[in-house]
Specification:
flat
């Protein structure tokens, strides 16, 4: 059974509209956040937030490793050993790299 051409057009437009709406939300968030920071700087109340790279690398490494393991196992079972499993191996490798970075930096920092 073939879908009508109107249905095909609607199905093709839905992801485009979603991407555009997401881009609009991100744009206005960045714009309003920038204006807020400018006003805080002018008022003398702005303090730069501290970014903990060590905690971020641990969290991102754990998340990427777990997602990479799940994707690698699923894609291997579903597709076998082919180039499709790169969709799981790439986040797994990045996650392991971040966890190694965390371990090295934690060791350098000391107890």
């Amino acid at each position: 059974m073939e879908a009508s051409s109107a249905a095909q057009i609607i199905v093709a437009i839905i992801p485009i509209v979603g991407i555009v709406m997401g881009a609009v939300v991100v744009f206005f968030y960045l714009l309003w956040n920038h204006r807020r920071k400018i006003l805080l700087i002018k008022a003398g109340q702005y303090s730069r937030p501290e970014f903990d790279l060590l905690s971020f690398s641990l969290l991102a490494g754990l998340l990427l490793s777990s997602v990479g393991i799940a994707l690698t196992v699923f894609l291997t079972m579903a597709l076998g050993l082919n180039y499709g499993i790169l969709g799981g191996i790439i986040p797994l490798a990045i996650g392991i790299g971040l966890l190694v970075y965390y371990a090295i930096r934690r060791h350098d920092r000391g107890p």
